[in-house]
Every structure is written in C-alpha cells, then in structure tokens.
Amino acid sequence: MPYPASVWPPRMAALLLSTLAALSAVYWGLHWRLPAQQAMAGVAEPAEQALDVSAVARGLGAAPEGAAQPAVVAAPAAEASRFVLQGVLGGDRAGAALIAIDNKPAKPFALGAELASGWQLTRVSGRTVTIGRQGAELELSLPPLALPATAKKAP
C-alpha cells in the first residue's frame, strides 16, 4: 500500500506557526506598558520636593532630638576634626547631611543650614559635603565602604 504524500511538511509548518505565535505573545507581553504621558504623570520635579531633614536623620540612624544623650567630654580639637560626616542625602540643589560636631551625637543639617560657630553647609555631592565659613571651606567625606563578606577571599 503506497503512502500518501508525506505528513512531515504540514507538521513542520504547524510547529513553525505555533512557535512564531508564542514568540509574538512573549514579545508583546514584555513590551506592554502604559503610554509615556500617563506613566510620567505622578513624577515630581526634584526642585519642587520638600526635604524633611528630621526624617532623613532618622533614616540615617540619628537619635531623636528629645532623647537623652550621654555626656561626652572632648579635648580641644582643630577646626577640621570637630566635624564628622555620618550620612548624606540628596544632591547639589537639595540635600542634607548627618554631621556630628565636637563628639556629640549627629544632627541633620539641610543645605544652607548653619552648623556651629559660623560654619554653614554649602554643598552636598555624592559621599562628600562642603562646609564654609567666611571664605574658608572644609570638605567632609564618608569613610570608604567596606567590602561585603561575600566579596572577601576565604582563608
């Protein structure tokens, strides 16, 4: 009994068409999204956002203003060693820093705020801030980040 025409061409065509349909569904599923204007409607400009300095301080680990702090007696120090940067948030236009002054607990300072004895927070950039007083500037930096335990070599 002779075989009719081969059954493989229709099977291969069906496989090809079903594969193309599946790939099309995956492509459009991954690229489906809202129109750009609707997606951007809820985004505010950074310059319009108000910065809550106390919330920044709490987020960076500072103690609340009213909390009792242990008394720390510090030896007289040079101007540069009076200030210790403990946290930074924001950028050039709006930013805040968590700074400890004279070995006291750190407090949050917004950009432009006076720190102590005429020093003012003048610039916030990345992991550094600049404070200034009467034309003199002092740059404070956060300590370098430690490597995660997974990045260190095992002995």
TrEMBL record:
Subcellular localization, as worded in the UniProt entry: Cell inner membrane
Chain segments annotated as coiled-coil in the UniProt record: none
This protein's UniProt keywords: Cell inner membrane, Cell membrane, Membrane, Protein transport, Transmembrane, Transmembrane helix, Transport
Gene3D superfamilies per record: 2.30.30.830
Superkingdom in the source lineage: Bacteria
Primary location class: membrane
Name of a matching Pfam family: T2SSC
Transmembrane segments: 12-30
Sequence ranges assigned to domain Type II secretion system protein GspC N-terminal in this UniProt record: 18-142
Protein's name in the database: Type II secretion system protein N
UniProt organism field: Rhodoferax potami
Classification of source organism: Bacteria, Pseudomonadati, Pseudomonadota, Betaproteobacteria, Burkholderiales
